[in-house]
Design goal:
About 35% of the residues lie in helices and about 5% in strands. The protein is α+β, with helices and mostly antiparallel strands and about 250 residues long. A five-stranded antiparallel beta sheet has the order 2-1-5-4-3, covered by helices on one side. A hairpin with a 7-residue loop joins β1 and β2. α1 runs antiparallel to α2 and α5 packs across α7. It is globular and about 55 Å long. The relative contact order is 0.23.
Length: about 250
């Protein structure tokens, strides 16, 4: 049996495999679903702008993946901090009652709800060929674990003198694609632009979704089963008192 209410900040396909029926009949733009969409995407847009500024000086090429610098270090920390902020928001918007500070092993729980490890990203501005990124592939695991780029983030944050080389273009690019993925897993195509309220994206013959302005193309998970999918009419549901369900992260 499919789900008759959406979770907050977690997209799922409907039973017919569409994620969006019409703009006028979607939960994705509701403030009750998330009142942070515009702010979160604006933060991402500024990070992308700063990433492109770095690429004015470092060619996005396989040969330069290990290049590191203070500018990369600064942006790497900002990107990972923004990723953490999104993770905490998803957990706190649903059912997660763990006391104390949350960490990457708590964020791992989001993969169960959003299938982050199944997303695939293409970075079109890379050479010599398009860069394929799966920033959450490490979470394709039955036991909680960290992410390679997140480990690098913690290493360089806590001991820059010895780990400065980990603030490199490869890890920054993975972190940036991870941030984009977790935004997409919340807001679908509306994450492409902080003020976007129309369906101006396109899907290619390999099912990658993109817009003319985005540096990324993204492919959705294809492993949802019918019991995990949504099945409701939002225009009917939104007038009810309890129109959202809470994903039980405590149970994971």
């Amino acid at each position: 049996m499919s789900l008759n209410k959406p979770f907050k900040k977690i997209i799922r396909p409907f039973i017919d495999d569409n994620y969006l029926r019409t703009v006028s009949n979607t939960y994705l733009l509701e403030n009750d679903y998330s009142n942070e969409r515009i702010s979160s995407i604006r933060a991402f847009e500024i990070i992308v702008k700063d990433y492109l500024d770095i690429l004015d000086y470092i060619e996005p090429n396989d040969n330069n993946e290990n290049t590191y610098s203070h500018r990369i270090y600064e942006l790497f920390l900002r990107t990972c901090t923004e990723f953490e902020s999104n993770c905490k928001s998803i957990l706190s918007s649903n059912q997660f009652t763990k006391a104390g500070n949350w960490n990457i092993l708590d964020y791992y729980k989001i993969n169960k709800a959003a299938k982050l490890s199944d997303y695939e990203i293409h970075l079109n501005i890379w050479s010599p060929i398009t860069k394929v990124l799966r920033p959450f592939i490490d979470w394709n695991s039955s036991t909680p674990k960290s992410l390679s780029w997140y480990i690098a983030y913690n290493n360089v944050k806590h001991d820059r003198n010895n780990n400065f080389h980990e603030a490199n273009l490869k890890n920054l690019t993975l972190a940036l694609s991870g941030l984009f993925t977790i935004l997409f897993s919340q807001y679908f195509i509306f994450c492409f632009d902080s003020h976007q309220t129309t369906t101006s994206s396109s899907t290619d013959d390999q099912n990658f979704i993109s817009t003319p302005k985005s540096i990324f193309k993204i492919k959705l998970p294809e492993t949802w089963v019918d019991t995990e999918k949504y099945d409701f009419d939002w225009n009917t549901l939104k007038s009810t008192a309890n129109k959202f369900e809470s994903f039980n992260f405590d149970a994971i």
